Backbone:
């Protein structure tokens, strides 16, 4: 089975204790720490743009984001040049940064084009470079805006095996890319869910979700219902939910990603009566190491 075929496989839903878990962290085709929904999105993105990636691939992102190691892993697999743009740091610090070292070990060229780590500033520099080099530019969030078809074929399809008639579906919401895909999938596969909780562990994405849902509704002539969506702006309102902070959480045999799902599970256990309400948590990815 090749990589693309593996990307289309549906990852399992497991009941552990009193909670169902959608285990997208079990999409790990390289038998290393690279895993999850974002990896699948990137596989389909590369497959769609096989000719373009031959010129090389560039991505500009935070040192804390798993996007860079994912992109570098796939560049190694597809045997194409890879450049990572980081900002607001030094090469000495990057040598002590786990994600940057994964990229370096994968053969990526790491550059610091500016003193700012802001995504908009980094993307500006990446955009200027690709005008000259014609490299394939993987923008923040796996370039959803320009690749809606990839988006539909990846995360939304994974909603097929969600349990029916859930009381609660709980999702980590960072860039909101995966959240939007899950909302689409729940509509496509007619999932009956009383409450969907998107736990915002990054700056508020509710407007982004609303805008993309409107776009998807028009493009695919569907009606994604947002009446059951509860956006929890944990990033702005709850202590310890800052993106750069980490949290340790486990549940029976599951160890949650310290920057993403651990914060979400912490919210779930303190706010959802999961012993008595049928609850599923979507694990987007596990730790990359």
Residues:
């Amino acid at each position: 089975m090749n990589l693309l075929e593996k990307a289309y496989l549906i990852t399992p839903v497991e009941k552990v204790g009193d909670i169902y878990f959608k285990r997208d962290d079990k999409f790990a085709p390289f038998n290393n720490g690279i895993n999850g929904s974002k990896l699948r999105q990137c596989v389909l993105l590369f497959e769609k743009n096989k000719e373009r990636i031959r010129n090389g691939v560039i991505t500009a992102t935070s040192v804390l984001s798993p996007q860079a190691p994912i992109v570098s892993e796939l560049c190694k697999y597809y045997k194409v040049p890879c450049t990572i743009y980081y900002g607001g740091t030094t090469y000495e610090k990057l040598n002590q940064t786990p994600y940057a070292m994964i990229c370096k070990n994968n053969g990526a060229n790491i550059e610091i084009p500016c003193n700012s780590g802001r995504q908009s500033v980094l993307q500006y520099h990446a955009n200027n470079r690709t005008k000259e080099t014609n490299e394939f530019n993987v923008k923040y969030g796996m370039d959803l805006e320009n690749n809606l078809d990839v988006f539909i074929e990846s995360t939304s399809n994974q909603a097929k095996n969600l349990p029916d008639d859930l009381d609660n579906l709980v999702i980590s919401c960072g860039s909101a890319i995966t959240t939007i895909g899950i909302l689409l999938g729940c509509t496509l596969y007619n999932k009956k869910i009383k409450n969907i909780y998107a736990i915002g562990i990054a700056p508020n994405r509710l407007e982004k979700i609303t805008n993309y849902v409107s776009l998807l509704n028009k493009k695919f002539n569907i009606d994604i219902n947002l009446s059951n969506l509860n956006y929890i702006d944990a990033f702005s309102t709850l202590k310890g939910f800052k993106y750069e902070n980490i949290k340790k959480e486990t549940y029976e045999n599951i160890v949650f990603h310290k920057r993403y799902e651990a914060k979400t599970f912490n919210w779930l256990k303190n706010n959802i009566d999961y012993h008595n309400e049928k609850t599923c948590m979507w694990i987007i990815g596990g730790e990359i190491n």
User: Anything to note?
Assistant: The chain has a mean pLDDT of 93. The longest helix spans residues 119-133.
